[in-house]
Design brief:
The complex is a heterodimer of chains A (302) and B (266). With 302 residues, chain A is an alpha/beta fold. Chain A contains 11 helices and 16 strands. In chain A, the strands form 4 sheets. A 6-stranded mixed β-sheet of chain A has the order 8-9-10-5-11-12, sandwiched between helices. Chain A has a 4-stranded antiparallel β-sheet with strand order 4-1-6-7, with no helix packed on it. In chain A, strands 14-15-13-16 form a 4-stranded antiparallel β-sheet. Chain B is mostly helical. Chain B has one domain. In chain B, helix 6 packs antiparallel against helix 7, helix 7 packs across helix 8 and helix 8 packs parallel to helix 9. The chains are: A alpha/beta (302), B mainly alpha (266). Chain B: This is ABC transporter permease.
Chain lengths: 302, 266
């Protein structure tokens, strides 16, 4: 249990008798970047709110740093930083004042403010009213607010929402830096797999309140079985020939035939076989199933 | 206790640049200033009435209290209760506020207490400025006899009573503003309530004291009776309407906490 920064045990949560979270067992290892993936409305934000005790979970189902959340709310929140939905910023205060106010609430020295502003690149806009910030600047201020207490665990709800490519790369690098160089555990939610794939060490996929997959990013990759794509002339005959030779055909279009990939040697044998029987093979290559499609498959089939 | 102090200080930090905070200071300055100007510019008319010192003070104080107590105080309280909560509604910061490692009850109490403190500051300034501007008036118009009577005890007692009588309204409006993010609902209900309060207090309805909105008016109308006495400062503070106001305040404060702690989850 001590290896997990976050652990939920068969978590169930209802809103007005409607189940939102069903039997969710998250296991977020300490020091990992955990990508929490799911389409909109899957229950990601609800889960994050439960992890912050904003929504009250049934007792003995949610453990943060090995401690039950309802009984250790303040002690746990002291070690957690969060960005939930849109960053919560007071528009009539400047970025600096927003951070000062948070320092005040957390009992931290205000010198931390400048450090945070520099970290997220807002030093120049420090005294500008936060309502005049661009979406990306607000998001960065939100992340600065989450980081100001130097928390061991960061909960980031779609932190790259509304950011331009530069901003997205900055946030990504910041997350990698925090996890690798500062030993932080980060749970980051997203509905974009490509986003998670680049940073996360672990992935959890949720849809309609249910956890459909949980594991390392490599385990997710292994789920996607490689395929062999063959481009060949006289495709109908080739297809017939391959079937008779004992191959199972996964898919067939006007241009190419797809069969499961086994190994390089087998591919070579297959190639020779086709050529020896008078077919012209214009291309033969190994194709990994796109993770994006895999994600769609996992979420659709359940 | 530390949580409460931190939250209270943060409330001040957040609102120190808003109208709600400055209204507590500007309101008494402007109203007392205007009345003093009135007494200064029409001093000849007033001098012709040959008021004794006590009565002149009472007329002067009454001018501020009349506008203040009946209309401005209830509306200021409505506005105050609204803006303390609106600062979180508008910025969608309730959830962040309740995700801080602070006691939830302290966060809520600090908000309520901050509104109470602002109303106290506002009324305290009214008492102090009335006294100060009165003496200024005496300097500007030496023919006045304001220096021959000391109204400070009366002023402090009276404004303190008015402060206590406004807490019932505050608690109702606080809850309304907690539940609804928009301005119109609490303002509309508060407006109707205030009108109702003024009417019921003026016709001396037997059960007017049960409506918190009538409490300031009730306190004021009891003061007209006071004027006939030889010592106007000799009145009771904890009358029926003040007790009712306090009971309303305590009960609604507790109910408000349960609303606030559920509110944070949305």
């Amino acid at each position: 249990m001590n290896n997990y920064a976050i652990e939920t045990v068969g978590l169930n949560f209802n809103f007005d008798n409607q189940p939102i979270i069903k039997d969710l067992s998250l296991q977020v290892p300490t020091g990992s970047i955990y990508g929490f993936l799911g389409p909109n409305g899957a229950g990601k934000t609800t889960t994050i709110k439960i992890l912050l005790n904003l929504l009250k979970s049934p007792s003995d189902q949610v453990f943060i740093f090995g401690k039950e959340i309802n009984h250790n709310r303040i002690a746990i929140l002291k070690r957690v930083g969060a960005l939930v939905e849109q960053p919560a910023i007071y528009g009539h205060l400047s970025g600096k004042e927003n951070l000062n106010n948070r320092c005040l609430l957390l009992g931290i020295k205000k010198t931390k403010t400048d450090e945070m502003l520099a970290l997220v690149g807002l030093t120049e806009a420090a005294n500008k009213k936060a309502s005049k910030y661009s979406l990306g600047m607000k998001q960065r201020l939100g992340i600065a607010l989450a980081l100001v207490s130097d928390p061991e665990l960061l909960l980031l709800d779609e932190p790259t929402n509304g950011l331009d490519p530069n901003g997205i790369i900055e946030i990504r690098n910041l997350m990698l830096d925090l996890a690798t160089n500062h030993g932080k555990t980060i749970l980051v939610s997203s509905h974009l797999l490509a986003e998670i794939e680049r940073t996360a060490t672990h992935v959890g996929i949720i849809n309609r309140g249910k956890l459909l997959f949980q594991g390392t990013i490599d385990e997710l990759h292994q789920l996607s079985k490689p395929m062999l794509e063959i481009e060949v002339d006289r495709i109908e005959n080739a297809s017939e020939f391959l079937k008779n030779a004992g191959y199972s055909i996964t898919a067939q279009t006007e241009k190419r035939i797809t069969i499961p990939f086994t190994n390089a040697k087998d591919s070579g044998i297959l190639n020779s076989l086709l050529i020896q029987n008078g077919f012209t093979v214009s291309s033969l290559y190994q194709q990994r199933k796109d993770l994006e499609n895999l994600f769609l498959d996992i979420t659709k089939n359940n | 206790m530390r949580s409460l102090y931190i939250s209270l200080f943060s409330e001040f930090y957040k609102s120190r640049k808003t109208l709600a905070f400055w209204a507590a200071i500007i309101l008494p300055v402007v109203i007392c200033g205007l009345i003093t100007f009135g007494f200064y510019s029409s001093s000849e008319k007033i001098l012709a009435m040959h008021y004794p010192p006590m009565l002149l003070w009472l007329r002067y104080i009454g001018a501020a209290l009349g506008v203040m107590g009946v209309l401005i105080l209830p509306f200021y309280v409505i506005f105050m209760a609204f803006s303390v909560n609106n600062i979180e509604h508008k910025n969608d910061t309730w959830k962040t506020l309740f995700a801080q490692p602070l006691n939830k009850f302290s966060i809520y109490t600090a908000k309520y207490l901050y509104a109470v403190i602002l109303i106290f500051i506002c009324l305290f300034l009214f008492a102090v400025l009335t006294l100060a501007f009165g003496h200024l008036l005496q300097v500007l118009v030496p023919k006045y006899n304001l220096n021959e009577f000391d109204p400070s005890v009366l002023l402090i007692k009276f404004y303190f009573k008015l402060f206590l009588s406004s807490l019932g309204i505050l608690s109702i409006q606080f809850i309304l503003s907690l539940v609804w993010a928009d301005f119109l609902k609490p303002m509309g209900i508060g407006f109707v309530g205030t009108i109702m309060g003024i009417i019921t207090a003026n016709v001396s309805w037997k059960y007017a004291y049960l409506i918190p909105y009538s409490h300031p008016s009730l306190v004021l109308s009891s003061s007209t009776a006071v004027k006939k006495l030889k010592n106007p400062a000799d009145f009771e503070i904890f009358t029926q309407e003040v007790w009712t106001s306090l009971i309303f305040a305590v009960v609604l404060f507790i109910i408000g906490y349960f609303i606030a702690s559920r509110k944070s989850i949305k």
